[in-house]
Design a protein that fits this description.
The chain has 165 residues and is α+β, with helices and mostly antiparallel strands. The chain has one domain (29-152): Nuclear Transport Factor 2, Chain: A (Roll), CATH 3.10.450.50. It has helices at residues 32-45, 48-54, 74-87, 153-156; strands spanning 62-64, 70-72, 91-102, 106-117, 125-136, 139-149. The protein has a six-stranded mixed β-sheet with strand order 2-1-6-5-4-3. The protein starts with 31 loop residues before the first helix and ends in a 9-residue tail after the last helix.
Amino acid sequence: MSLPYFARIDADTQPSFNHTAPTVKKTLFATPQDAEAAFYEAFMKHDLEAMMAVWADDDEVYCIHPHGPRTTGVAQVRESWRQIFTNAQSLRFQVRQQHVLQAMMVSVHSVYEQITLSEEPAARRCIAATNIYMRTERGWRMMAHHASPAPDLEEVEPRRSKTLH
C-alpha cells in the first residue's frame, strides 16, 4: 500500500477551477519558519484553505509532488492539493535535517520529511523536499514546494565517530 501523497496526479486530467482563492490572505506569517509550520500543519490536517493561506497569490508559484508533474499557478497548485487531500490517509511528519538559506526577501528550506501513517508506529517514507518562501507585503509566503523520494534517513545521516582527536 502506498501513501496517497505519493499518488500520481494525472497530468491529463483537467483540473476543476471552480474554487476561488481569497484575494486577501488573513494569516500573517512573520517568519519563513512560521509559514513552514503552517504548511505542515495544514498538510497533516488535510485543510485546503489553511494550505492555500501559506501559498503566495502569484501565477509563478509551483509545486512538484513525488512522482507527479510540475503544477504552476495558484489554481493548479490548489487543485493538486485538493486531489491529495481527497484521497489522503492521516499522516504525521517529522522534518529532519533542515538546511536553511535565508536572505532579506527569500528563504530556501531543504528538509527530509519522514512520513508516517497515523496508525503505524514507524516512518514509512523519506522525502527530500525544498520549500521556497518569499517575503511579501502580507508576510512570508510559499512560492515553491518540490518533493521527491529519498533514501532512508539512516542512509543519509552521517555516522558520528566517538573518537576524539
